[in-house]
Amino acid sequence: MLTTASHKKVLHQLNRSFLNEVGGLSRFAGRFFNQAFRPRYEIAEFIRQCFVIGYKSLPLIGLTSFILGLVLTMQLRPSMVSYGVESQLPAIVGIAVIREIGPVITALIFAGKIGSSIGAELGSMRVTEQIDAMEVSGTNPFKYLVVTRVLAATLMLPILVLLGDAISLFGSWIGINIRGATSFHLYWTQVFDNLAFTDVLPAFFKSFFFGFAVGIIGCFKGYNSSKGTEGVGISANSAVVVSSIVIFILDLLAVQVTDALGLN
Amino acid sequence: MDQLIKPEINEDNQELNEPVLKIQNLFKSFGDNHVLIDFNLELKKGESVVVLGKSGSGKSVMIKCVVGLLQPDKGSVIMFGKNIPELDDEELDRIRAKVGFLFQGNALYDSMTVRENLEFPMRRTWIQFSQEEVKRRVVETLEDVGLAHTIDMMPAELSGGMRKRIALARTLILRPEIILYDEPTTGLDPITGKEIIELMNEIQEKYNTSSLIISHDMKCVQTASDRVVVLIEGRCYAMGTYKELTQNTDPKVNEFFE
After folding, report:
1. What CA dihedral angle connects B120, B123, B125 and B128, to 10 degrees?
2. Within a domain: A17
3. Which end of chain B is more exposed for a tag (fewer CB within 10 A), N or C?
4. Total domains, chain A
5. pTM score of the predicted model
6. Quick one: pLDDT band at residue B14, thresholds 50, 70, 90?
7. Quick check: A136 and B69 CB within 8 A?
């Protein structure tokens, strides 16, 4: 059985490793801001990363968003019918998807796909000395690999969230029409009539922060990978776990800020 | 026109004997682990020096300090008259264009073809190359290593020996004056290892490069070295030609040559 002293020791070690991680990530983010806006700009690599991170994530985000909207509608429908407010279904789904479910679910899927791929790719490049080879070739690997990926993730996630929201609402329209009959035009009119800019803008802005978190955490984990191939797996895994937790924390902070600003 | 980087030394014979690389009193530690302790070494123009040592003796750390991938705790690494640890990024890049580095694991970019791997240093260096020059140099360098037919292949499609040759071609692409080899024959079968050593010697002869080779492969030490430096516990323990060191009676040195 663990004694009080050994409990304290374990807690102390956990605390220390947590603080080391937070400190390392903060320094890494500081280095990103320090290097992101100084020449030489890696435009070609940035555009390539936007294609890889944004365009190539679209099928997955699109599919999951469609199913999300469809299932959400089908799950809500019985309750709405029992309360006699079935006609409010488009409004309820619209607000839920645009304000909360769309950005958070899209960000979590994005963390799973992009966070892990960045963590594994950079981790593998680190352990096979490709990052060192890049540096020896006169390339700043931080700018070439980290800055481009973090910027691409930050800019692509909000676009994916907007597209995902639209696809999700389309799925919801299909869901409504499985057991009812609402025209496409009427459905969208009902959704937009119940939405305000204060619903859309905070959700859109917080997705930039989600994208930044996924990019910077994936790069941090991969860039500082060690312990050979085992380390690559650890980097990919922890990139997803940490960015998912950070997405929820950021979401919590965002709701506090919008509340304080009277936007809720 | 071939944009070879001219050496910053006079054509005078005495000047040619000046070292292109001079490591003086180099110290490097990781926590309590003292990896390099007062390490010294000189490499002259056209010379090939092998640093021989056991695993963990600090060979790779030393070579990484030379190319600026690691910052030494103390001491100087003078290359082409500049002290590497004191250089800023821009100056370091200018020096690095004159230095090739062959990594132990080759470090080929997995996501790029052989052509793109070779083009990468040419497109990234401060020296401007025309499109035609890049294409011409890539083909010429691949011919030098006997693998012109692999130009559009991915590194994963190549054998270990072929990957080593491609890595060597990438090292050569900027026509460096100094080539640093980190365990060039490790992980290769004896025949392929011998071929790589022969290729290294051919390259040195053709381009008149200076070579600093890290190795514990005695075949490599014997056939590729003008001088051998024995690195033991972070210190330059013994130095001489291969023949001289084989006659050394010190048991620690003798251990390598038995």
Report:
1. 150
2. no
3. N
4. 1
5. 0.85
6. very low
7. yes
Within-domain flag for A88: yes
Bridge pairing between strands B19-30 and B82-83 = unpaired
pLDDT on residue A9: 81
C-alpha dihedral sign at A12, A14, A17, A23: negative
The answer to whether residue B227 is domain-embedded is yes
- Identify residues of A whose CB sits under 8 angstroms from chain B CBs: 124-125, 128-130, 132-140
Local confidence band at A230 (pLDDT 50, 70, 90 cut-offs)? confident
For residue B109, give the nearest of A130, A136, A140 by CB distance. A130
Please tell me the distance in Å from B111's CA to the nearest CA on chain A: 10
Collapse the DSSP code of B258 into the 3-class scheme (helix H, G, I; strand E, B; otherwise coil) and give the result: coil
Domain assignment present for residue B110? The answer is: no
Which of B93, B111, B174, B175 is the best substitution to test chain A (most A C-beta atoms within 10 A)?
A: B93
| Phi, psi torsion values for A39, nearest 5 degrees | -65, 155
B109 to A138: CB separation less than 8 angstroms, yes or no: no
Range of the domain at A161: 45-260
A132, A138, A140 ranked by CB distance to B107: nearest: A132
Q: B65-97, pLDDT tens digit by residue? A: 999 999 999 999 999 889 999 998 888 888 988
Q: Is residue B179 part of a domain?
A: no
Could you identify the residue written with the tokens 């989600």?
Answer: A210
pLDDT tens column, A119-135: 999 999 999 999 999 99
Looking at chain A, the number of H-run helices and the number of E-run strands are: 12, 0
Q: CA nearest B111 in A: which residue?
A: A121
> How many domains, chain B?
1
Query: Does residue B178 form part of some domain?
Result: no
CB contact under 8 A, A128 and B107: yes
Closest-CA distance of chain A to residue B63, Å: 12
**What CATH number is given to the structural domain containing B238?**
3.40.50.300
ipTM: 0.84
Which of B234, B252, B254, B235 shows the shortest CA–CA distance to B244?
Answer: B254
**Per-residue pLDDT at B10 exceeds 50:** no
Domain that holds residue B228: 17-96+216-258
Is A234 inside a domain boundary? Answer: yes
